[in-house]
Design goal:
By secondary structure, the protein is of the alpha/beta class. The chain has 2 domains: 216 residues, Glycogen Phosphorylase B (Rossmann fold, 3-Layer(aba) Sandwich); 147 residues, Glycogen Phosphorylase B (Rossmann fold, 3-Layer(aba) Sandwich), CATH 3.40.50.2000. The chain is built from 11 helices and 15 strands. A 7-stranded parallel β-sheet has the order 3-2-1-6-7-8-9, with helices on both faces. Strands 12-11-10-13-14-15 form a 6-stranded parallel β-sheet, with helices on both faces. Helix 1 packs across helix 11 and helix 2 packs parallel to helix 3. The two termini are 18 Å apart. The mean pLDDT is 91.
Length: 385
């Protein structure tokens, strides 16, 4: 049984953490002994079944610019704090002595954490029993990185990494389309397919039965979509009622109460959906942002969908994903600058009339990750013997 030490750190947003946890559960299902190095704040109710979790001193960031690391209470994460946390991580490595070391996003993201990741990689590479070192990345990366950062990533891959696992389907998009420098290490790249939620057999609660479901994740960036949806239902030709809008857990209580007063008859507004992936199998149209996990929910369910990409700051991932899915008639993209009650209603009606998905996509990424690691680890062992 191979042991895996999987480094996972969330700084701003938790979508990638859900993907990482699904990968970890896929490894557990195929017999790996999984150790999760958890570097972010704790998420209530998170499923860690079957794996051992090592909690580092939590760290987060102040905003989407990732310019400042903070403690969970908002105080500054000092240089001394970094040294202490680095020691914590290296101690975990010594205790686990993994066969496989996996980093989530790094060396193409999480650069703020290099104060501990570089010592970790150096320790792993210089160990008597050096593990296979693997990077776990999503299918669409942030574009427009500075050349200096691109060169840095290429050098890190060459020096430390044996394998780059891309959690996507190359028939939808190839990683070199968004990851600058990928051609420099193409021989290390393997595609796992999309990592999507596990299927459940439960029926959605009657409280959440609807035709059109509008979700905005945690809600921190989705209030334009939420407010527009409250006015859009009346303009839909196919679904003039029976909508649910999920406002998100990050919306303040005052704002949520105000949204409830603005909710029209025939629509329900809630904070969150307990079993989103399952509910999507039972609805007619999903309206959401275009994050990796949400799109995974849509692909698993097969429901029609409207994608409204988040494009704040320098973000390009969701726009690229929306464009690809629209071009393949898998979804209807609603351009952010054209958002209005009428355009949203029209997009919902258009999505409902799209033909069933014609693009066959690989969507068993968690299990395929485990299978690929077994194959690649066998080669790795032969190479070092």
């Amino acid at each position: 049984m191979q042991s895996v030490l999987f480094y996972v750190q969330h700084l701003w947003g938790v979508g990638h953490v859900y993907r990482a946890s699904r990968i970890a559960r896929g490894l557990v299902r195929q017999g790996y002994k999984v150790h999760l190095s958890w570097g972010g704040t704790k998420i209530p109710g998170f499923d860690f079944s079957g794996m051992q979790v090592h909690h580092l001193t939590p760290v987060k960031t102040s905003d989407a610019s990732f310019s400042q690391l903070l403690h969970a209470d908002g105080s500054i994460f000092s240089d001394n704090d970094k040294r202490i946390r680095c020691d914590e991580l290296l101690k975990i490595y010594d205790e686990v002595s993994p066969d496989i070391l996996m980093t989530e996003a790094y060396p193409f993201g999480r650069r703020q954490m290099r104060f501990e990741l570089l010592p970790l990689l150096e320790k792993a590479k210089s160990s008597c029993k050096s593990p296979m070192i693997v990077a776990s990345i999503r299918d669409i990366m942030q574009e427009g990185r500075k050349e200096k950062r691109v060169e840095e990533s290429i050098e890190l891959v060459a020096k430390y990494f044996d394998l780059i696992l891309v959690h996507g389907d190359k028939n939808l998009i190839r990683i070199e389309e968004t990851l600058q420098g990928a051609k420099s290490f193409f021989e290390k790249i393997r595609y796992t397919g999309l990592v999507i939620p596990e299927e459940t057999n439960t029926e959605a609660s009657d409280n959440f039965q609807c035709d059109v479901l509008v979700t905005v994740g945690g809600g921190a960036f989705g209030q334009n979509l939420t407010r527009t949806a409250l006015e859009a239902m009346q303009y839909s030709q196919l679904f003039p009622r029976n909508w649910i809008v999920s406002a998100g857990t990050e919306v303040s209580e005052d704002d949520f109460e105000l949204l409830k007063t603005q909710c029209p008859e025939g629509m329900k507004i809630v904070r969150y959906i307990p079993d989103l992936a399952n509910l999507m199998r039972q609805i007619k149209v999903s309206v959401s942002h275009a994050g990796y996990n949400t799109v995974g929910d849509v692909l698993r369910s097969g429901c029609a969908c409207v994608l409204y990409p988040y494009t704040g700051g320098r973000e390009t991932e969701q726009l690229r994903r929306s464009e690809i899915m629209d071009a393949n008639s898998i979804a209807v993209m609603l351009e952010p600058e054209r958002l209005s009650p009428m355009s949203l209603a029209n997009a919902v009606d258009k999505a409902a009339e799209l033909p069933k998905q014609s693009v066959a996509l690989q969507i068993d990424g968690a299990n395929e990750t485990a299978t690929l690691l077994k194959q690649e680890f066998a080669k790795f062992e032969l190479a070092i013997c």
